[in-house]
Structure formats: C-alpha cells, structure tokens
Design goal:
heterodimer; A: 297 residues; alpha+beta; Alpha-Beta Plaits; 2 domains; four-stranded antiparallel β-sheet; 10 helices; 4 strands; B: 228 residues; alpha/beta; six-stranded mixed β-sheet; 7 helices
Chain lengths: 297, 228
C-alpha cells in the first residue's frame, strides 16, 4: 500500500516535471484540445437549443378546425367529444364566429370599421382551436378531425413541424461529424505531444528500462501527462464556453425576447462535465496511442 | 550465473551477430569480453539483458531461461543486473545524488531507504562530496563512477560494462577498472566488454574473445590477443 502510494507520487512528479519542461508543446496540445472541445461544446449547445426551440414551437402548434355553418348546440357538442377522443389532443376550445371577428377587428385596430365594411354580416365560421400534447401526432390528428362530419376544413402549421424535425436531424448529424473530426484532431495532437515528450526523455526511459522498471511504471507518467493536457484543454474550453454562452444568450434575450434559449444551469453543468470527461478521455487515448506504439519497453 | 547454449542471433538485415555461441560464466567471476568492433560483444550483452531474443539457442541468467521468461518478469531479471556504458548515460538535468536515486525510485524504493543507500554507494566510488553536483561539472572518470554507483545501488548480482573505459584516458581507465575489481571482490559477477588491451593483458583475468559472431577463445588468465 505504501509502495503503491509512493509509486503514485512518483508518477505525478514525473508527469508534472515533463509538463514544465515542454512548455510550448504542451500549450499547443492543450490549446488544440481546448479549441476542439469548445467547438464540440458549441455543437452540443446548438443541438440542445434547436431541440428546445423546436419543442417549444411544436407545442405551440395548434389545429384550427373550421366548422360548417348552421350547426346547433348538439352538433357542436358531438364534434367536440369526437375531437377530444382523438389521440394526442390536449385541449379543445370553442371559438365562436363573433369571437373570431372581435379578434380580427382588434388586429386591424380600434378605429377600423371592419363590421361596417363587411356590411354588418360576419363571414367567419365557428371553429375549434385544438392544442396537442404530442406534437408528432399533429398531422394524423388533423387528418382524422378533418373527416368528422360538420368540420369544413382543418388548418395547422402544415410542413412547419416536419421541417423543424428535419432541421434538428441535420444539425445533429453535422455536429456529430464535426465533433468526430475535431476529436480525432485533438487525439492526434496529444499523441504527437506525448511522442515528442517520450523522444525528449528517451534517455530516462532507457535508463529506467536498464534498472528494471516495470512497463507500467514507465508508461504511467506519459498517460497521466496526456490526461492532464486533455483536462487543461477542457477547462479552458468550459470557461470560454460558459462565459460566451451566458453573455450571448443574455444579449439574445434582450434583442429577440420571443426566441426560446436554454438557460437551465443543470443542462450546462451536464455539458461541462461531459466536456471535461471528454477532454480527459481524448488525452488518455492520445497518450495511449503513442505509449503503445513508441514505448516498447 | 550466465549460460549460453549454442546461441545465434541473426538480424533481419542479414547480419549474423552471433553464431553458435556457447559459454558459461560462474557466480563471482571476473570476465573480459574482447574482440574487434562488430564481433558481437554488444549483441551478447543485449541478449543477457533480454533487450533482444536469440534466433536460436538457449540462454540462462541466474538459473532462469530468458527465452521462456514472460514479459512481465523481465524487469525482475534486470534488477539483478547493473549496466555501465561507454557514454555514461547520466541524466544531465539531475544531480549526482538524483541520478543514483533515480534507479532506486524506479524499483519502488522509499525515501528513507534512498537517503541511506545512495551516500553509501557514492562513498564506495569516492564521490560522496560530489552528490549535489551535476554531471557536466564532473570529469569523465567521475561521471563513469556515478554510472557505476547507479548500477550498484540496487545490489545486482551481475555487473555488465560495455566499453566502460572507451572515453577515458589511461590513468582514469585504471581507476575505473580498480572499482570493478573491488566490486568483484565483494562478490558481484563482473563482465566487461573492452578494447583496452593493456588492462586486459595486465590483469590476466578470464578472457572470452569473439570474432565475427563466434567465440574464438575462452581462457582463464588470458590476454587481449595472441601474437599472430
């Protein structure tokens, strides 16, 4: 136990000794990791936000079912029950033609003489406004409501929902590819850094070998060095990302108040934890590649 | 201590570094390994050290076959062997003390043990006063003595030196050889590959001569070369 502790201490000392020695190289490797994790973070935030926005938009999607003229209370009640029975429907509200006209008049402005210009008649139909609990069912629900007797026609944001889904899928795909490429880049750079470190320390390595160090004893400081580089890069990325994201969303909400953005700290902390782990992982993979390939001890 | 049975080593580039070498070195012996450059001295040392495996033959070091040895047992083999090289191979950014202590750290020795043992070996090679100096502040002979101290610090049963006096003048070479003799008297087996004819001829120890990968001579109280 004491021996393991001493070994661990030694491994840390060696890793930091070598980090101090190759300042610029380490800076480059940590910097690249930082940049790639930063972009990775942006990609994740982009996906999270489009998901969030599309969720918000989707849940605001309503179906308007315009009704035939001359229906009585019983007809209305029957239609309402049938609509409520449709899967995915959350809320149904009746909008009378008077209410619709009032809303329309309001939109034209108080001074406008909408009623008069229409010759005192109301051309608008009665309607039901339907909110959905499950946005993905909007299309099918709309179709089945349209078939109900007494419903003249149905309107909803045809296409908008589908487009939104397509957009998120694309963003997800593109950021996945970008993440992958950048991840490979930083693994490669860390691998190169560790390889150069090992080259700079080949003398020590061979001496260690001659006096009978075990393979893992020789390897550990390099693996640790890689992990530290990855973690350092991740910390920089998290800090920059954290500051710039909160600044950006703050500004965005001032300018575009209606645009929903994720400002949930738990989501961000999850992301930052993920980035940090990813940084250490990249460092470990990178140094492992070099240690495995160039350190035949 | 060391047994070679019909050992051959061929490199992929076609070089036959060692051809059918058979030799036995007993515990406590003092042996010179001589021969022209490229005769296979370094290969022989690398094989003992299991830095390389032979193409053919069997090798025992300390009673264990190094061919059947598992990879993870190699470090333990090496801990029994101290190595000294022509170019000293010290770490330039560490003091004399740290250079020697390094070999102990690597095998997991504790700080107290290191503090006790390092001055002990430095005293043995007469460098106790130089402990806090860096290799570049020392003469060649002194640097080689640091290397010897490092080789000895883990108490190996076998000390191997590859051209230990190759970079040193005659007086200093004798000084270094005297340390090897002292170490040998204390019970450590010593194997020295060398070109130092005068030293070999004066000491009249066992001499194993290699030429083009073959053991051409193995005699006790031998000399560097017979007049031809």
């Amino acid at each position: 136990m004491l021996m393991q502790l001493r070994m661990a201490l030694y491994v840390f000392q060696e890793a930091f000794r070598s980090l101090r020695r190759n300042g610029w190289l380490n800076f480059a490797a940590a910097g690249t990791t930082a940049v790639s994790l930063f972009v990775l973070g942006i990609a994740v935030l982009l996906v999270v936000n489009t998901n969030y926005i599309s969720k918000t938009v989707e849940s605001n999607v309503e179906i308007m079912a315009y009704l035939d003229r001359g229906l009585d209370q019983n007809d209305l009640k029957a239609i309402r029950t049938q609509i409520e029975a449709t899967p995915g429907v959350k809320e149904v509200r009746f909008i009378s033609k008077e209410e619709a006209l009032a809303t329309l008049a309001k939109r034209f402005g108080k001074e406008s003489k909408l009623k008069e210009s229409l010759g005192g008649t109301n051309p608008l139909p009665d309607a039901f406004r339907i909110r959905m609990s499950e946005p993905r069912q909007v299309a099918s629900a709309a179709a089945s409501i349209n078939r109900l007797p007494g419903v003249e026609k149905v309107r909803y944001g045809q296409g908008v929902v589908e487009k939104m889904f397509k957009l998120t899928a694309w963003i997800r795909l593109i950021s996945m590819v970008v993440m992958g490429l950048l991840g490979v880049c930083s693994v490669f750079l860390i691998a190169t850094t560790i390889r150069l470190t090992m080259f700079a320390r080949r003398r020590e390595i061979s001496i260690m070998k001659w006096v009978g160090a075990t393979d893992w004893f020789v390897r550990w400081p390099f693996l640790l060095e890689g992990m530290i580089l990855g973690a350092a890069g991740a910390l920089v990325a998290v800090a920059v990302l954290g500051f710039s994201y909160s600044a950006l969303t703050g500004k965005l909400q001032e300018v575009l108040a209606f645009l929903p953005v994720v400002r949930d700290y738990r989501v961000l902390i999850h992301l930052f934890e993920g980035l940090f782990t990813a940084g250490i992982g990249l460092g470990l993979v990178g140094s492992f590649i070099s240690v495995h390939r160039y350190l035949r001890v | 201590m060391i047994q070679f049975f019909n050992v051959s080593k061929f490199y992929p580039n076609g070089v036959k570094a060692l051809v059918g070498a058979t030799l036995h070195i007993e515990k406590g012996e003092f042996v010179f390994l001589v021969g022209p450059s490229g005769a296979g001295k370094s290969t022989l040392i690398k094989l003992i050290f299991r830095e390389e495996l032979p193409t053919k033959g069997q090798i025992y070091v300390g009673g264990r076959s190094i061919i059947r040895m598992k990879r993870r047992d190699v470090p333990h083999l090496r801990r029994q062997i101290g190595m000294v090289f022509q170019d000293f191979r010290l770490l330039p950014d560490r003091t004399v003390f740290e250079n020697v202590a390094f070999a102990m750290q690597v095998v997991g020795a504790g700080p107290q043990e290191i503090k006790r043992r390092v001055p002990e070996v430095l005293e043995l090679v007469g460098l106790k006063e130089r402990a806090q100096m860096y290799p570049r502040q020392l003469s060649g002979g002194e640097q080689q003595r640091v290397a010897i101290a490092r080789a000895l610090v883990n108490k190996p049963t076998l000390l191997i030196a590859d051209e230990p006096t190759g970079n040193l003048d005659m007086d200093t070479s004798w000084e270094i050889i005297n340390y090897f003799q002292e170490i040998n008297r204390r019970g450590t087996t010593v194997l020295i590959a060398t070109h130092a004819r005068e030293i070999v001829d004066t000491l009249r120890q066992r001499v194993i001569a290699l030429d083009r990968g073959r053991v051409v001579r193995d005699e006790h109280q031998g000399v560097y070369a017979h007049a031809t």
